[in-house]
Fold this sequence. Notes:
By secondary structure, the chain is α+β, with helices and mostly antiparallel strands. The chain is built from ten helices and 16 strands.
Amino acid sequence: MKNAMFILNPxxxxxxxxxxxxxxxxxxxxxxxxxxxRETEGKGDATRFAREACDKKYDFVVAMGGDxxxxxxxxxxxxxxxxxxxxxxPLGTVNDFARALGVSLxxxxxxxxxxxxxxxxxxxxxxxKQYFMNILAIGQIAESTYEVTPEQKTKLGAFxxxxxxxxxxxEDAEMFFEIEHDHGVWKGExxxxxxxxxxxxxxxxxxxxxxxxDDGLLHLYIVKNAALPAFIRIAGxxxxxxxxxxxxxxxxxxxxxxxxTSNPLSCNIDGDEGCATPFQIEVLPRHIRAHIxxxxxxx
Length: 299
């Protein structure tokens, strides 16, 4: 009999995980899997569970929760010899990886889609000992997202991050960056540096419209001037997928990037606090065996 591990964060989605738990278990059993259900209780649990699924050579891993839970589960699968099929049921505020894979943001629809579809090997990235699937951000705007409370996320969703970012850009906090990539070195003052893997970042599905889930590339955006007037212009370019054309934004497509700053600066990895500069980022091409819902054409 095939084995599946179902990893869920019981507090995700305003604690809606309990409403869908039995549906996921029943669906997987209908598909012929023996289901091993694990509930997270703290940081790192989903990573540990997913790694155990690899060690035991499980056939399928399904994670249900917010972006943090999904990131942890994928981190547990990363660089393991055995790669189970992976899917997710999104219950988060932003759900970038679900958007990139074409997974419905409606949990009931996402559960139903487990029954059919196809698989695709997709990229992830590694920075230090951490992994990410969507975005790494550095700068005061990125650090401001740590100020978003769970209550704000519940009430305002992704707009809560926008509000905190707007507060941050009014402060004069440009930092000197030295960024080495495949094509050379960039040095200068910047307010924000983004390293994207997919076309969906922070709920915006046009930040990196050219990004493919399996192109083997990191898409680097250096925002050189993010004073309020420039920020408004950049935000408009972001909404229509024209960020590369903004004069205040330097864009590089690369397989690896090293970032150093004049003072140590923490990065934001898929919405959570990550390591501090200096560090190196590398893409792990076609690394995760993802389940793709039926009738979805994933970039």
